[in-house]
Structures are given as structure tokens and as C-alpha cells.
Design a protein that fits this description.
Radius of gyration: 21 Å
Order of helices and strands: HEEEEEEEEEEEEEEE
Number of strands: 15
Strand content: over 45%
């Protein structure tokens, strides 16, 4: 693609939306190995752009250890395949194009370690989870166009650390299989609060092995250059199977 064609494309490129609506679909499985150990696997599919665009899919594995009653530690790995959004970097005059990265699919590797505690007050459960998360995005060859040199360059690899803190309240309604919950999660990086995510939902358990959930999330983004997230309204559907 020549410089003139790129400039023409950019001149008609719409500004990135400041709010969005998407769907998140999750499928998981869990197996208890002993009184203290359990393992799990999950797959996820996300959409953006008012559900018109596939945003990413991921596959993850995790292990959990019960330290004492009400306190658990876990660790996991997730492979993510993202539909990276188009980006345009301008020079200091904010008018002249500097570098342009068209939309492309790329992999990311994510590792996490968590510590979770919970306590019951009657049928109300209060839980707090602290999670360290490291995500590495490998370099991508020839994905970025440099206007000064009229050539395509590589997108450099990048690693990022995030601390995620989530507080959740859930309630076990007597003689009712639909249990409501609410939570708030804060994402922190070296620049401060990256984003906040608020969620309300309902769990439905069928014969103890099947767990379905319907959720609504609102995501408020402060600084999230790598995930490319924006303020979003998100509907989630999930299913988990618990092996005996």
C-alpha cells in the first residue's frame, strides 16, 4: 500500500469510539483433586463494536490450593488471540501522521497468581481477591507503517504488570437456585488506576455440577493503552461444569 493510499484511507477513518457494547461468552470446567487441590480450564470469546466485531478468544488453565478455610491461592496461564484495533500516531502538531498500525490478529501470553479470602455472614458471602497479572505481547513483523521512512516496521514486543483487586458480595437465597452477586474490580499498573470494572449477575446451579451465569458489566477506562479497552457496557453468558 503506497503513501497516498494510506493517507486517503486515514482521512476517512472514523475516530475511535469512546463507549461501546459487547458480549462475553465463557465456557469452563473444574475438577477437585483432593480436599485442598483443584484444577480448571476455560475458554472465552469476546465481541466489541456493538457486537459486530470479534474482539478476542482465549484458552486458559489454572490450579487452586486451599490454604485454610476461607483462604485460597491460585495460579494460571491464558493464551489470548486478539483482534488488535487500528492505531494512528500523530506528530506533535497533532495533524501530521507519524506511524500507522492497521488492524491485525496477534497472540498474547498471560500469567497470574491470586490470593482469595471469603467470609460468610448468614447467607451473605463477602470475598476479596488480589491478583498479580503479567501479560506479554510478542513482536509482530511488518505491521506498522512509518511515514517518515515510507516503510513497514515491526511492532515491538511488550510486557505489562497489573494488580487486580476485586471485592464481591453474593447471597444464597433460601430454596432458590438463582443466586445474585455484585462485585467491583480495580486494575492498577505503574501509572495508577488503569480501569474499573463493575458487575452484577445471577448464578444458576443445576444438580451441583452445572453452573450457569448471566452478568452485566460496566467498564470505566482511565489508562489502558495495551488492551485498547474503552468505556463499555458488557453482557456475559457463562457455563461451568464441575467434575465429581
Amino acid at each position: 500500500m503506497g503513501l497516498a493510499a494510506i493517507a486517503c484511507h486515514l482521512s476517512f477513518c472514523p475516530a475511535r469510539a469512546q463507549s461501546d457494547f459487547g458480549m462475553w461468552y465463557e465456557l469452563g470446567a473444574e475438577k477437585k483433586l483432593s480436599q485442598r487441590w483443584s484444577v480448571g480450564a476455560e475458554a472465552e470469546l469476546r465481541t466489541r463494536n456493538n457486537t459486530r466485531t470479534l474482539d478476542r478468544w482465549s484458552l486458559g488453565l489454572n490450579g487452586e490450593y486451599k490454604i485454610i478455610h476461607g483462604l485460597k491461592a491460585s495460579a494460571g496461564y491464558t493464551f489470548l488471540y486478539n483482534n488488535r484495533q487500528e492505531e494512528l500516531d500523530l506528530k506533535k502538531d497533532e495533524l501530521t501522521p507519524n506511524k500507522w498500525t492497521p488492524s491485525y490478529w496477534g497472540a498474547r501470553h498471560r500469567f497470574n497468581v491470586s490470593l482469595s479470602g471469603n467470609v460468610d455472614w448468614g447467607r451473605l458471602n463477602v470475598s476479596l481477591r488480589e491478583r498479580w497479572q503479567y501479560t506479554y505481547r510478542p513482536a509482530a513483523e511488518g505491521k506498522k507503517y512509518d511515514f517518515d521512512y515510507d516503510t513497514w516496521k515491526d511492532v515491538k514486543g511488550k510486557g505489562k504488570n497489573v494488580l487486580r483487586s476485586r471485592l464481591q458480595l453474593s447471597y444464597d437465597i433460601p430454596h432458590w437456585k438463582f443466586d445474585p452477586f455484585v462485585n467491583a474490580e480495580m486494575f492498577n499498573d505503574d501509572g495508577g488506576i488503569q480501569k474499573m470494572r463493575y458487575q452484577v449477575g445471577i448464578d444458576y446451579k443445576y444438580k451441583k455440577q452445572h453452573v450457569f451465569a448471566l452478568t452485566y458489566r460496566y467498564q470505566n477506562v482511565n489508562n489502558d493503552d495495551d488492551d485498547q479497552d474503552v468505556n463499555s457496557h458488557l453482557i456475559g453468558l457463562s457455563y461451568k461444569f464441575k467434575f465429581k
